[in-house]
Amino acid sequence: MTMNIDEEPLTPEVMLAFYRRLYPFKSIFSWLNQGHTPTKLFTQREFAFTLQGDVYLRYQSFNTADELKKQVCTMNPTRFEIGPQYTLRPRDKKLARPGTFQPVERELVFDIDMTDYDPIRTCCSDAAICSRCWAFIAVAVKVLDNSIRENFGYKHLLWVYSGRRGIHLWISDKEAMQLTDDQRRSLVGWMSVIQGSKDQHKKVNVRPASRPLPPTLSSMLGTLAEAFSQIILDDQDLFRSAEGWKELLHLLPKDFVDDLGDHWKGKDRSSEDKWKDVKKFVKTNGPQGSAKRRMYESALEDIILQYTYPRLDAEVSKHRNHLLKAPFCVHPKTGRVCVPVDPETIDDFDPGNVPTVGQLLRELHEAEDPEVGEHHSDWMKTSLKPYVDMLDKHATEIIVEVVRKKKEEGDKTW
Amino acid sequence: MQSARDRKIATKKFLSVIPRDAEYPFRLNFYDIPPLYHVTIEEFETCALERLRVLAEIESSFARNRPWEDMKKFVTEQCKKHYPLDSSTAKFVDIRTQRKRDHIGHYVLRLAFCRSEDLRRRFVKAETTLFKIRFDMDDSSERQDFLDSLHGPTNKANDKQSGNEMDDGNKRGQNKIEETGWEEITKDEFDEFEEELRAAYESTLSPRDPPLREPWRMKHYKVKWMRVPDLVEKRRVFLHKGKAYVPETELSSIIFQQFQDNLEKSLLLTLKHLPRLDEDTRIIPLLNNLSQGFLAGVPSEWCSATSSANGDEITADMIDGMAKQHFPMCMRHLHESLRKDKHLKHFGRLQYGLFLKVLGLSIEEALAFWRRSFSLIQDDKFNKEYKYNIRHTFGLEGKRANYPAKSCQQILTADQPGPQDSHGCPYRHFSIDNLQTGLLSMYSNQGLSSAHLPEIVSIVKAGHYHVACTRVFEITHAAQGVKKNDGVGEGESVTHPNQYAARSLELEKMMKKEEEDVSMG
Ligand SMILES: [Zn+2]
């Protein structure tokens, strides 16, 4: 089953109605601004618009949520993106002395895209996505969410469905906002486990041979092994095909190759059976406690990592001035709204159930009270409500912490 | 004379390395206090020039991809000859003068190199490397003394943890330990994370090292993860809630990072104060000369005017033929991926596009080449998504910079290829199997056979990727008279893909000319 493309075309009229009546500008403002009265985090923040006909308009900036809304409704972009807070208002960029227009703060962002999983999924390819391949994203979210919280101690994480085949993460903790590009690069290095070009079979090199996994990876191994068994062995059945099991053999130590290769050639054995063969080989050929056994076991762990660990688009995270699509934009191909996603219930998330702009406008129409005119919080009458509530709750948590910190600092200087 | 006890107290404070009486207690110097004494203009100049020679050597070692051990040896020899700095136990040398010259040289070069972003970056890199080399070569007991002087006994650094903010506030600004945020972890913390600390440490050991038997013997320091970015990037420490738990064996990494951070900050401060020097007319020309010397002492970006030099223009439809004859493997691979997939991802386009530009492809021909190559893409999409970028690489859009093609060093180290990418250096980024298959399929018609593979593979395994590439050049140009160790002319190794291609074209031209001469004669 592939996802249905929304039946209604995304005309400029549809988009305009969406922006005027449904898009939660106030919530987006509070989240980016980290406070109720406008600060530089909002007023010096770059917005970039993609207009109908793919005209790209950079360095827009606004003083208030209303200003942003007004401009969005005037320009009626197909989508818009969010960049960093600069040293000056981006709209005044031309007036800046050379070298003085620099990014200052920006959420730490991550982008996970299904296309990076093409070599290891059998159900779909390229732009297509189904609930089966969403399982890959779900694992990635769990691992990344856990690592960011446990290793780096960040708390304000917002996961947002990208509208088609991926997911974005925005981290708003003060420290994360202030990371330099170099620091972002180091953090991404920590998170990057799958590396090497497509001409390189083994893409996991996280330790010298046979050494234990770094603790951050070994602590996730249970989750990953479960995902490996469910997704790779059972659901995708990746090693059933000759292409799939040959790739698997490339990742195993040489001793396995002759034995298992002969055993699998020309037979239709399920991935689960093949993995059992691998494990049996380990047991019979690597005596408990021997160096060989350790080597085999590390190879198996590395394979589990290679097939399940999050595949990140690293470039997105490394630079403060990288632009990322704003939450609640509409994906132009699917018509689906880029809604926040709760990592706690990520397994139940089905991209096919995300509201489309057409559906939302219909809901609005049905709930319409002819007596009352247009209203700002029209989204409350639609299935967009739980998602906007999620963003509001998230923004409130950020603001509460900002206020608390300010108070603490005030106490100190007092 | 200071008593030993006095000295210990004096060095307890973080970074206050230089006690007034014994100006230079250590061979290593963090350079956080400028020379506060009279310096003659001669000393000013000679100390700077001596140091500059060493720094330029470090830069060119990087450019030549010299392995760390080789570079260390080489630079140490250079230092011995021109800029000695001996340990405190050395006999019959004037240690104080050596250390003074080291101190002055460093500060003069700060003045010369604070003035542009590029100079600052290169200066910081070379200075940090020099510091690392000296740190590595330092007598181990002297190094320990120096380290102790930096972080001191770290037991009292835990005030922050106690949550006693009044106390904490009072100390702000006085206690340097707090600024750098070092804390030795407590016994409780150690017990809590023992498993993780052991695994983190063991996962960094080489297979031959014995496993750690008594990890509790080793001190661990807790520090904000941003202070040890390289350890974090390589996953060499345990991280918990934003703090890196650094074993004492990795301490040097912290020291180096701190040296670098301090220097970066100081250079910006120096820049601010520089205008005051304008009045001294002797100094400014001297500083200008110094920064020029740094630039000249280093191999510059490889750029050639191939097309203008030999007069024949390169056109889009010549690329297929040229790739087979003259391109190094990275570019052959990009070319073949482009033909196969009818597309290249961003860094592939960048690496290949800049290479072709420097090879001599004009903007018109480049646009024609890419347009035809992306044959699955509609004109509309091509014009929107790719044309701008191609024009950009030619400096016709955006910053209008004339971007140089990527050198081997950049290809080897920057922008590591991801699972879907075709860019990078095949010698480094391919698996050995794929490398061998690739070499045979690309170069067997130029004389490379499977008999050559073991040699190439062993060079690759030793990590000398550019040497492997040079060897392939020699093998595939044997017909033009190139012998082993000739390299790309006068024994030089390949350091730039365009250098490879240009030399190959040059050899072909010489052959043609000889043939003509023969047939005419
Ligand atoms: Zn699917």
From TrEMBL, chain A:
Entry-linked SUPFAM superfamilies: Prim-pol domain
Any one GO CC term of the record: alpha DNA polymerase:primase complex
Keyword Secreted (UniProt): no
Keyword tags: DNA replication, DNA-directed RNA polymerase, Metal-binding, Nucleotidyltransferase, Primosome, Transcription, Transferase, Zinc
Any Pfam family matching the protein: DNA_primase_S
Transmembrane annotation, as ranges: none
GO BP term (any one): DNA replication, synthesis of primer
GO molecular function, one term: DNA-directed RNA polymerase activity
Gene3D superfamilies: DNA primase, PRIM domain
EC number of this enzyme: 2.7.7.-
Family of this protein: Belongs to the eukaryotic-type primase small subunit family.
Matches recorded under NCBIfam families: primase_sml
Name assigned to this protein: DNA primase
Source organism: Phlebiopsis gigantea (strain 11061_1 CR5-6) (White-rot fungus)
From TrEMBL, chain B:
Cofactor remark from the record: Binds 1 [4Fe-4S] cluster.
Positions of region (Disordered): 145-180
Gene3D superfamilies: 1.20.930.80
Residues noted as binding [4Fe-4S] cluster in the record, renumbered to the chain: C330, C408, C425, C469
Start-end of Basic and acidic residues biased regions: 168-180
GO MF entries: 4 iron, 4 sulfur cluster binding; DNA binding; metal ion binding
Role according to the record: DNA primase is the polymerase that synthesizes small RNA primers for the Okazaki fragments made during discontinuous DNA replication.
Protein name stated in the entry: DNA primase large subunit
Species of origin: Phlebiopsis gigantea (strain 11061_1 CR5-6) (White-rot fungus)
